[in-house]
């Protein structure tokens, strides 16, 4: 592993691009998918106008917040909780919605396994215990919100995840939520299911028509066209991939032909004669069909045979499309983790640290697992 300064790389590359009349461009700015899902799970859920659901949600979370506050208020209360349950509660925080789900899920597990001990704990701490109706609400809430939590965990990863994971994750999430609409065991949280579906449609529906996101997904061998259900959508996606393939292949052919023409101009003896060029142009109508057939074969071979990223190198144009549209991450969580690590390094005793020194320490901190393997 080698450390490079990003400024030097960009400066060196910019000189080459100016000579080739090219411009360096950043990927399209997109909103963090995890932030949008957190808004769906938190802000949009609070807007539900179903009276029964709203009443149950407010009373349940009020009781849960009281027991969490008791745990955080003193070590004596924490000792009491450990004595009754053998462990502490998982407590939520305001920065990540996942923490709220994990806290509620932990409480539901304790309700199932240690119900009596939990009742004694509430009595000793002089708190109102959960009613049977509220217990049923919590159980349904955990079941309904589990696909949301799983989707967030997938998208906010910083390894082995690219922009191509976004649309399949949302597709599976909508399918799982749709299955709850016909589930007879979900009675108190049907308003929650409908709210989640409406909010996901409002915040993410335009992404399914974004060609760049579609290409990012199609060129991922893990998904390809499997996330699409309708035949017309599958054909449209396949034609989109073929058009992008032809575009990049045409650019590559133009670059190679320009190189060949420059080589030919340097030598008067090289290159085909005018008669041969006329023959080549005469038969271009049928040779072009053969080239298009090879293009279709390569796209079809990728869709039918490629099943892992390791095999993507056998399809260089498809690999180029994959790298182009999967360069960004669907979430900004990894960047936030980087800022958090930077805050730990830039402490009060290191205020005079230079920028280069800070970047090198942050680089070593983030990649410490790699260096341990050495």
Structural account:
The chain is an all-alpha fold and 374 residues long. It folds into three domains: 177 residues, no CATH class; 78 residues, no CATH class; 35 residues, no CATH class. Helices cover 69% and strands 0% of the residues.
Quick structural overview:
This protein is mostly helical and 374 residues long. It contains 18 helices and no strands.
Q: Note the gap between the termini.
A: 10 Å
Strand content: under 5%
Q: What ranges have pLDDT less than 50 throughout 5 or more consecutive residues?
A: none
**What number of domains?**
3
**What is the overall number of helices?**
18
Oligomeric state = single chain
Q: Kindly name the structural category.
A: mainly alpha
Largest sheet, in brief, is:
none
Order of helices and strands: HHHHHHHHHHHHHHHHHH
Say how many strands there are: 0
**Bulk shape:** flat
Radius of gyration: 29 Å
Mean pLDDT, to the nearest integer, reads: 83
What is the percent of helical residues?
Answer: 55-70%
Could you name the key traits of this structure?
18 helices; flat; 0% strand; 374 residues; single chain
Helix-strand blueprint:
Elements: H1 6-19, H2 33-41, H3 43-46, H4 51-73, H5 75-85, H6 97-113, H7 115-124, H8 132-155, H9 166-181, H10 190-204, H11 211-218, H12 231-266, H13 274-282, H14 284-305, H15 316-325, H16 333-345, H17 355-366, H18 368-373
Helix pairs in contact: 2-8, 2-10, 4-5, 4-8, 5-7, 6-8, 8-9, 9-10, 11-12, 11-15, 12-14, 16-17
Protein name: HAT C-terminal dimerisation domain-containing protein
Domain HAT C-terminal dimerisation: 313-365
Organism: Daphnia magna
